Every structure is written in C-alpha cells, then in structure tokens.
Amino acid sequence: MALAGVRVIELAGLAPAPFCGMILADFGARVIRVDRTKGAMTVDTQARGKRSVALNLKNPKGVAVFKRLCVQSDVVLEPYRKGVMEKMGLGPEDLLKENPRLIYARLTGYGQSGSYAKAAGHDINYLAMSGLLSMLGRSSEKPYAPLNLVADFAGGGLMCAFGIVLALLERSRSGQGQIIDTSMVEGAAYVGSFMWKSRSLGLWNRPRGENMLDSGAPFYDTYCTSDGKYMAVGAIEPQFYQQLIKGLALDDADLPAQMSVSDWPQLRQTFTRVFATKTQAEWSRIFDGTDACVTPVLSLDEVLSHPHNQARGSFFKDSQGEISPRPAPVLSRSPAEPCHSRDPFIGEHTRSVLKEYGFEQAQIEQLLSAGIIECNEAKARL
Amino acid sequence: MALAGVRVIELAGLAPAPFCGMILADFGARVIRVDRTKVAMTVDTQARGKQSVALNLKNPKGVAVLKRLCVQSDVVLEPYRKGVMEKMGLGPEDLLKENPRLIYARLTGYGQSGSYAKGAGHDINYLAMSGLLSMLGRSSEKPYAPLNLVADFAGGGLMCAFGIVLALLERSRSGQGQIIDASMVEGAAYVGSFMWKSRSLGLWNRPRGENLLDSGAPFYDTYRTSDGKYMAVGAIEPQFYQQLIQGLGLYDADLPAQMSVSDWPELRQTFTRVFASKTQEQWSRVFDGTDACVTPVLSLDEVLSHPHNQARGSFFKDSQGEISPRPAPVLSRSPAEPCHSRDPFIGEHTRSVLKEYGFKQAQIEQLLSAGIAECNEAKARL
Fold first, then answer.
1. Are A101 and A177 in contact (CB under 8 A)?
2. Are A191 and B153 in contact (CB < 8 Å)?
3. Domain ranges in chain A?
4. Phi-psi region of B113 (alpha: psi -120 to 50; beta: other; left: phi over 0)
5. CA distances (Å), A115 to each of B144, B234, B263, B275, in order?
6. pLDDT at B377
7. Which of A117, A185, A194, B119 is the most buried (most CB within 10 A)?
C-alpha cells in the first residue's frame, strides 16, 4: 500500500485527528493511537486499523515513554491547543532535534498563532471564521453549518493527511522532516477557494440562497416526492435542462426561461408540484440513463444497495455489520485496504507496541505495575 | 517546495479538476492546462500558477501533441466522462505503456464504472448518491446542498490531489505509476465517514436537523445580531456552555438543562432574543478570549482583516487585488507558494511549453499555422 512502512503516532482527540489517522491507516500506515490511562471508553469511532497504547501523560515517566515512541516514528499527529505539547517537553523543536526526519503534524481549529490560538472552538466556529458559513443556508433561514463536514473533516482531517503525505514525499528527496500547522479555519477556506475566485464571474452576486449553486436556482435543488423522499436536481447546462423538462413531462413553451431569475419562484413551484406526483423510485426510473442530472437523495443505508454504488463497491460492511464508505480515491496498483475488524480497545496493544519499539520485558512490566502505562488485552466488550 | 519538479498535464474542465491542479501548482508542481483551440475565454478561475497550451483535439495531430506532453510528464489529470480519453487513444493503458511512471488521475462524478459512469451530473447529484445530502438542511426545509463544497472540492479536487501525492510517494519507492479513479460520490462519502461511524454513539438518532451537530441543538447554531449580522455558537461541552450562558448575561437557574432536547425550542427562543440585543461587534468583544465557542460569522471580505486571521496571514491579496485563502496546510520547511500574478490566457504558453518538451521550432510553427495548436501570447485582456 502507498503508506506501507510509515509509522504514525496519533494523540487521541476529537473527530478531526482520528479521521486523519484513519485515512493514513486505510492507505497502509501503522497508526498507533496514544490514549490516556484510566479512561474506559474511547470516543474515537474512526479507529479502524489502528492500535492503541494507554499512557499516563501526567507522569514524567509516561511522557518519556511517549517521547521514545515519537522519536522512533515517522509522523506525530497532535490535536492539542497551542502550548500543550511544549509544556510536556514534546514540542516540535524537542522531537525534531532527536529525529530530524520526523513529520510533526499539528491539527487545530485556529492554528498555532493568532489571537484565537488558545481558544476552544468547534467546526461551526472555524467555518464562521473562514468566511464560508456566511454563504451557507437557504435565503429564508439564518446561516446553516453542514454538520461538521467542511472544517473538521475536509479542511481538518483530510487536509492534514494531505499535508502529511506531501511532507513524506518531500522527505523522500531531502531526508528531512518538518512541522505541519493545519488550521481548520484555513483548511475550510482553502477547500472553498472557488467561492472567492468565482465572484468575478458573477456567480455570487445575489444574497445568500438566491444564487445558482446555493439553492437559488430551481434547477439546482432538491424536491419532495409523493412518498416523502427526495430527488436531487442539478440541470445547469441547457442541454441537460431540456432533458429535465422532458422527464417532468413539461413543455418548454409553458415555462419561463431557465435563466430568468425573477421567474425562479414560479418555476420552483411548478417543479415542486410535478415532483410530488410520483415516488422516488418512479422518478429514478424516468431519469436513470439520461443526462437530466436528476438522482435520488439516498440515506446512509440506501447507498449500499443502489445499483450504481453496488457495482462500484463504493460502500462496504465491516465485520460488525456496519456500513462505511470505501476509502477514496481508488488507486489501481496500491489501493487502500480498510481494516474490517473491530476497533481497538483503549490500551489493547500497549505491551506489543512497546516491545516493538525496543522496550525490555522487565521495563514494560515495571511501567505497568506503576500505572505509567495500561494494557487492556483481555477486556471483554460489554 | 514539496512538489518541485513534478510536471502535471491538466485537461481543462469544470471546477473540480482545476481546483486539483491549483493545489498542485500552489505546492510547487509545474501545471500545464491543455485548453481547446478556438475558445476565447477560460472558465477556469482556479488557474493561478498554471501555464496554458491550446490544442485542437479533434485533429489526430493535436492528439499526438497531447500524447507527447503526457508521456513526458509525471501526472495526467483528466475530468472527462468514461471512454473519452480512450477514444482518442489516450487512455491509461495507452499512456502507461509508453511511460510506466505516469500517474494517470481520472476525476469524475460517478467514477470509471457502474451504471451512472456515462451520465452527466453535478455536485448536488454526487452528494445525493453519497448519502450525505439526506442529512443536510434544517428540519423545516427540504435537503440542502452546501454550495458545491463537499463533492466538487472536498471529495473531488482535494481528494484527487491527495491520491496523486500518495501515488507520487509510492512511486518514489516502486518506480511505477498507476491509475487513480477519483469518484466524487465516493470522495464525498469518505470525507463524511464519521456520519456512518458515529451512528452507534446515537449522534444521529433524531430526524434531519434535530440532532446535536445539524442545527438541532440551540447551542450549536447561528444567531442574528441587532445589526443584521450573525454569530456562530458551538458550545457543546458543559464548561464551554457555562461560559456561553455567562456571556449572554443569563442565569442557569432560569434555563432548562442544556441537554434537555424537548426544551431546545424554548432555549433557542431565549438565545435568539438575547443575541438580537447587541451588534456582532459587541458580541465579539464579549466573547473574544473566552472558551464560550462563540465567533462572528465573517463574510468573504471580512475574513482578510479579522485580527486573528490577519495575524495568521490566512488570506492574501493577489496582484489583481483579489482575496484568496492561503494554501493549507502550512508546511514549515517547504511551504506552498501561491502565484500572485494574473491567471494565464488560453494558449499563452503553447510555444514555450512545446519548445520545452522537445518540439523543434519549425514543427511548432507548422502546428500553429495548421491550427493544430494556438498561441495567444500577446492577447490583451479586455
């Protein structure tokens, strides 16, 4: 796999860093998640393929163990607020001094500098600071944050993984590591670069929710079907729009012009009325195989069995029967291999990992009895 | 820079592939965009740092020129529907045969297989097929697509760039290229992996728009201020929620419990009323420097000058005075260097690129006079 042989130490955190770690694990990296001792249940639901080591980082001996793991690895991924790692003597300068090849990735909401660097926040805050939240949400409503997709995951976990692989590539030439400062405000904004850049095209001239791509245009929106489900319509280009009209059994002559913005409310009403006359399955049958750009809005469960997705293998079921998206993108020769087994327990691999990193058996037992580390191999899952 | 020396041929397309090309250019790759001849204006607004070559791909001689460019490059990035490149004799097997080190990246909505592979579509369709659209939008509204952020850019351009860099890293070990099949349906779903995986935590038990992170919770939403602007509130953890209440001048004793879902409508009304009593600036002053997780919702222009963003340098102005997000993430030793000059004209670099790729002067002039290639060096911008 593409990241075979890459050793990653992931400091346990909320959703963004675990997602980054999962991506790396999916593509072949050895990801070791460092959890705290005395914590029974993990909140990391994106833990497939990882191993877990439990360390007491309040104790200098635990910090020393952690330092050794980092220095002997390729990547450190930490999600803490500015200064936390430095206080433990585990800042980038500390670790890079001992391992100049280390890629030290820091994934935070606000970044390592600036007045908000030490403040708490969540996706909605980072999205607000990025400028993008001001463009999101229907015109009749206040701004709407699309779950925590854009800052936590796209601009956070994925962006950080991208930076890590970039740094690994650069290291293959230079032999040196470096520090990656991933700010989710900046990651989200960068993902949305097109918004700033397409203003000159007039794409966002109207208020929020009244433009072509933000639910303003009736031919780029969702519609409720007779069975309470939805269809998604994306018929922008004239030739695609024609196929939409045809599939809806409407007559161009009866309708206002596609791009007549002042007539969009009326056009929307017409589409709403027509879509409500058939079920989602009936509309799918009408539009499948055409270029009308009309597709069913599938639920998290329906995605698995939709014929197109099924033929692609876009989703898989793991050994616990849970559905997950297949890792993207698909590489032909060194594809990702997402782990299908259950997620690790906290501290499940402490013994084996420490052994692998060169700790002596006696040393390991001593650390365990002193509570510096914990190992939960045999813990039954309730 | 991290991608110094990497030569990319980007076949001109809509927003996703140009974004992918821009990311690669930002991080140091030589990105050559191949445009069609007889086209006056480009629609690529994400063209900074790229060069443009104009070729007539309806003519076999033009295709031959493109083939030579591809074979002498590291990455080919093509956004066409399944079969289009193959028809021109430029499919992955054709090109990889002549250059086994080539990374052949294919960025499409539905991927290279499955029943929709030849169908037209846009972000809203890919998002619908990914399962994520079914979770987006307030409870009182039909599903809402957040611009074209999630499928076109996060699951499309960025995901493809990630795959390309993965493949480049793998090639540095194996010496071989490969094919990247980037489907935006799959890319979007993968970005949203957490949604499937956190269902077991009960995070999405309620209908759309009534959960913790999808505008159900009053302490995770936006609020209008007295001057018609907005604040973003993300105060999930109890200790942060306390600071929110405090900053709003409210008393815990007067309010229902934070997690009492049936009381959320009442709590929302209270927050709405209070936020409407001050301006955005006043609220920013109240909450800045606290852990209340309350931030202003900034516009695309306000982001540049907000003190935190300004200290970070999160946004920059190019030579045309346009604001853009700085590339993310920030690499300490080999950072991105986004081009500040104007975007290329179509065909601006045809001569210089062909010369660089080994075409003889006489050959180039012949191609130009025959209309196989076009060069628009001196075209004044209107």
1. yes
2. yes
3. 7-191+318-381, 220-315
4. beta
5. 33, 18, 35, 23
6. 78
7. A185
Residue with tokens 């930002």: B26
Selected residues 17-46 of chain A with any CB under 8 Å from a CB in chain B: 19, 22, 27, 43, 45-46
Selected residues 224-243 of chain B with any CB under 8 Å from a CB in chain A? 224, 230-234, 236-237, 240
Q: Is B190 on the interface with A (CB under 8 A)?
A: yes
Kindly state whether A79 is in contact with chain B, defined as any CB-CB distance less than 8 angstroms. no
Task: Provide the sign of the torsion angle of the four alpha carbons A94, A97, A99, A104, taken in this order.
Answer: positive
Q: Do A191 and B332 count as a contact with CB atoms less than 8 A apart?
A: no
**Torsion angle of C-alpha atoms A282, A285, A291, A292, degrees rounded to 10:** 0
pLDDT of residue B382: 47
- Chain B residues near residue A340 by CB distance under 8 angstroms: none
Specify whether the CB–CB gap between B193 and B52 falls below 8 A. Answer: no
A245-249, A374-378, B255-259 — which is least confidently predicted? A374-378
Residue B39's pLDDT is: 85
Q: Are B291 and A119 in contact (CB under 8 A)?
A: yes
Average pLDDT, chain A: 96
Mean pLDDT, to the nearest integer, of A335-357? 96
| Interval B193-205: pLDDT, tens | 999 999 999 999 9
For B284-298, write each residue's pLDDT tens digit: 999 999 999 999 999
Return all residues near B86 (Cβ < 8 A) that are at least 6 apart: B94
* Chain B from 107 to 146: CB within 8 A of any A CB: 110-111, 113-117, 119-125, 127-138, 140-146
Q: Does domain A220-315 have CATH number 3.30.1540.10?
A: yes
Contacts of A149 in chain B (CB under 8 A): 132, 146, 149-150, 154, 191-192
Regarding the domain with residue range A7-191+318-381, which homologous superfamily does it belong to in the CATH classification? Crotonobetainyl-coa:carnitine coa-transferase; domain 1 (3.40.50.10540)
For residue A378, is pLDDT > 90? no
d(CA B20, CA A2): 20
Say if the Cβ atoms of B147 and A135 lie within 8 Å: yes
Report the share of chain A in percent with pLDDT over 90: 96
Cβ-based neighbour number of residue A38 at 10 Å: 11
| Candidate from A40-49, B137-146, B350-359 with smallest mean pLDDT | A40-49
A216 touches chain B (CB under 8 A): no
What kind and span of H or E run contains B281? helix B280-287
Residue A382, pLDDT > 50, answer no
ipTM for the whole complex: 0.97
The predicted structure's pLDDT at residue A40: 67
Contact residues, chain B, for A195 at CB < 8 Å:
147, 300
ω into residue B18 within 30 of 0, thus cis?
no
Q: Is residue B255 a contact partner of residue B242, using CB atoms and an 8 Å limit?
A: no
Residue B378: pLDDT above 70? Answer: no
Asked if B159 and A114 come within 8 Å (Cβ–Cβ), the reply is no
Contacts of B116 (CB under 8 A, 6+ apart): A288, A295, A308, B109, B110, B129
**C-beta separation of A53 from A140 below 8 A:** no
Chain A residues 302-341 within an 8 A CB cutoff of chain B: 302-303, 306-309, 311-312, 314-315, 322-334
* Identical fold between A7-191+318-381 and A220-315: no
